[in-house]
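Dear colleague,

Thank you for sharing your sequence with our group. We've completed the structure prediction you requested, and as agreed, I am returning the results in plain text so they can be pasted directly into your records. Please verify that the sequence below matches your submission; if there's any discrepancy, let me know and we will rerun it promptly.
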Amino acid sequence: MKNFLFVMGSLVLALLSALPIEGAPMKKEIGNKIMVISDPHLLAPSLIGDGKASQHLATSDMKLVLESDMIIGHMVDEMIKEKPDFVLITGDLTFNGARASHEQMVRHLERLSQAGIRCFVIPGNHDVNCPYSKSYIGDVAEVVETIGSEDFAQLYSYFGYGKGSELDSNSLSYTCELVPGLVLLCIDSNLYNDNQLGAQIVYHNDGIVKPKTLEWIKKQLAKAKSGGKRVIALMHHHLVEHIDGESKLLPNYIVANHEEVSQVLRDGGVKVVFTGHLHITDAAICDGIVDVATGSASTYPLPIRTLTIDPSLEMLTIDTRFFDGLDEGVLLLGKHKIENGADALAALVSRRLWSKMKGRMEQLKLMLAMQGMEVKSLPQDAQELSELLLRHLREPLTHSLVSVSRGGEDPQQAAAVIDAIRQGVRGMVLELIPENGEMIVDFLISELMPRVEPMLRSALEDINQVGSDKESKTDDHRLKIIIK
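Please find the predicted structure tokens below.
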């Protein structure tokens, strides 16, 4: 849930302040078919039980965590019926990295292998050395065993880290040739080696491609280019900004050295990278590289990407659908979690804001008093600030969460949401300054909204780098990308 909340929270903050064996040649008349999912966040059933711990998890997370194993099982059933040649998963395989959850994920992937479908994975920030690996049995969640990077490579040795792959000695990055002439570059962008376990917990969900790994990538791309091979890339963190200003507002979700990494990939001929992490279904392009982000496989509306590469390995076609092969009650629960996320979003925003705002409250009252404006009541704590936000911004926050989760946004709907945010800001000012607020509210909105509307539009529409000479419009769901 935090991923969605950080997306919309930052907007409000701105306003307010398969076994790896050689397979048979694929049928060229249907193209090379690949399915992509991201962030399944699987929690093993053995870690779930009756009691307050699991009940709290069920109500506090926007993901369908308790149902995650069942969801992945049904997705695997669907994949086996559709018979893609490959399945790619862009990280966060598990909910907080418990060994038992990884072992359960491997069981699902083995079913794909047995059906002749090769699967390739990369880790996400939740998968390795995670200090929050817990079981939810009884009334109190208890810490359980997580795994390290060597464990990850061993557990997933049949899913990218075994025979047929070239491994990076400095990370869990690797390359493999999917079919003759098409190379998959899997980039480990995580900082799990910097996590600290124990009493002093330090956990990193931000990412970077470290220098030695970047040098390894250059060599792999040079080798592919010299052999006349195409390359597609897989990475957990974003490479391209999906929301204008993401590198400043949401630095945990885009690799810190994204400009350097982009240049290396661009020089090596990479035209597309598949990412996850932020739980949004969105495509964005910058300087010739398309970053195709896929939302969480355990969060409504459960997106699945299907890729088809033509026999000449020149054109990649991407189609997106939302998995509906579940009991209707589960789908309604997932939808309910998204539609009712505004309360948790407002609480998160308020906690982040309060430490900055509380010291300025008296200054604000004094400044307004000097202008002859009496403030009726300012929030006294984060809870009151959250209640203020919800009174005036609940509807646009809800619409924004739903829109960002699905992608493929409607410009008219986006304009309506932005207008609702503008009116919400007006309402907050007038509530705080009921007698004289009209004197300043129009000025505040006229100064504020032009600064934040480009960011809001990039979040709520299929558009990026709004107003710049690099402005681009990219369909979130259906794309054709030349990869030659």
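Summary note from our side: The mean pLDDT is 88.

Kind regards,
the structure core
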